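A reminder from the course coordinator: this example appears on the midterm review sheet, so study it carefully.

Given structure:
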């Protein structure tokens, strides 16, 4: 059975008022916003009240999020996070099982801005790559690992010890 892309996926979801209120409260908490800001290299972060369900890869959603929200990934002032599972549990949100939240960050450090710019400047590969491309050289590289004494690493004895 092969792996195939999903042609389309409906990422729509509906939260009860209580669930949404609890999630927004947890995601807007000052301490959590400060943690998001610190982890993203900014002075401050503010929850934008935008929640979405991650979607599988498809030609229309190559970035794992609804196409109408993907522009946030190109904005240095936006940061997308997975809603922490403890927040989902506290809000009694079990369907969907995963949600993402979008934050607006301010006071971005020069390092974070440079890293963001560099990630956008990376040119796409000239040819489409596959998950298998280069695997042979990786396997060969692992097989050529040397021990500290210069001998080639041989795991036969360790493997034999594991076999019952």
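Designed residues:
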């Amino acid at each position: 059975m092969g792996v195939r892309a999903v042609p389309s996926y409906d990422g729509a979801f509906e939260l009860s008022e209580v669930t949404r209120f609890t999630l927004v409260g947890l995601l807007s908490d000052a301490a959590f916003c400060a943690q998001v800001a610190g982890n993203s290299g900014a002075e401050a972060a503010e929850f934008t009240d935008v929640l979405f369900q991650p979607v599988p890869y498809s030609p229309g959603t190559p970035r794992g999020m609804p196409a109408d929200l993907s522009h946030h990934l190109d904005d240095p002032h936006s940061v997308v996070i997975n809603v922490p599972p403890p927040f989902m549990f506290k809000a009694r949100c079990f369907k969907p099982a995963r949600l993402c939240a979008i934050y607006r960050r301010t006071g971005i450090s020069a390092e974070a801005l440079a890293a963001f710019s560099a990630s956008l400047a990376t040119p796409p590969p000239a040819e489409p790559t596959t998950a298998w491309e280069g695997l042979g050289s990786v396997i060969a590289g692992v097989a050529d690992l040397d021990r500290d004494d210069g001998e080639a690493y041989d795991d036969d004895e360790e493997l034999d010890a594991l076999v019952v």
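The chain has six helices and three strands. The helical segments are 17-28, 30-39, 85-90, 110-121, 135-143, 156-162.
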